[in-house]
Specification:
Elements (H helix, E strand, L loop, with lengths): L3 E10 L4 E5 L4 E10 L5 E8 L4 E10 L4 E3 L7 E3 L4 E6 L5 E9 L4
Antiparallel strand pairs: 1-9, 2-8, 3-6, 3-7, 3-9, 4-5, 4-8
């Protein structure tokens, strides 16, 4: 069976929650990288809204200047269901670039 690998990006994420992935099926997220693009340390939140609740993967995670946070590591994966949305937010305006790798349309 062929796999549908996808990438999702967001540039200059700041103090407003930014939707990076809006799932319309069963998708498996296999990687999330959040890079600090500023000269100062930032703190970021990465969370999923399931239509009713915000579920945090990290909250207030510090990222030093010039560094990146790998939110998923060690082979971990998680599934987004239909209507789940992955958000990223920073405590500093225009401070983070985000890259998400996923497998789209996983069949049961």
């Amino acid at each position: 069976m062929a796999q549908n690998f996808r990438r999702y990006t967001a540039n200059n994420v700041g103090t407003s929650a930014t939707s990076v992935v809006a799932s319309n099926s069963y998708d498996t997220v296999i990687g999330i990288s959040v890079a600090n693009i500023t000269a100062s340390s930032i703190a970021v939140d990465v969370y999923i809204n399931d239509g009713a609740n915000d579920i945090y993967l990290v909250k207030g995670a510090p990222i030093p200047s010039g560094s990146a946070l790998q939110v998923i590591d060690g082979g971990a994966r998680f599934v987004l269901q239909n209507n789940d949305t992955l958000y990223v937010q920073s405590d500093t305006a225009a401070s983070a670039d985000v890259w998400v790798s996923a497998v789209d349309d996983i069949s049961s």
